[in-house]
Amino acid sequence: MTAAAGPAAAAKAAAISFLKDRMSETGMTQTELAQKADCERSHISEMLSGRVERFSLDRINRVLAVFGASIQVSYRLISDNRQNALTARASARRTG
Length: 96
Fold this sequence. Notes:
Elements: H1 5-26, H2 30-37, H3 41-48, H4 57-64, E1 69-79, E2 84-94
Antiparallel strand pairs: 1-2
């Protein structure tokens, strides 16, 4: 597992929960969401089933953008005299 895998996986899971909630609230179908996000309905189905490993953050962000949301990732190099570590943080964030 890479440094970003844990936070990215958690952010993807939060994104799927967000999508399910917004779709339920708006009555939007998978087909409608796929059309608005310019992707295949089968991809939306896979995402909503929790199979998000094969989808990049960019692809998930394209779908989230339909509802004014995105996943944002930031990296920070932490260094001291003993070790260097790369940390990553990812979060699902609503924009606008």
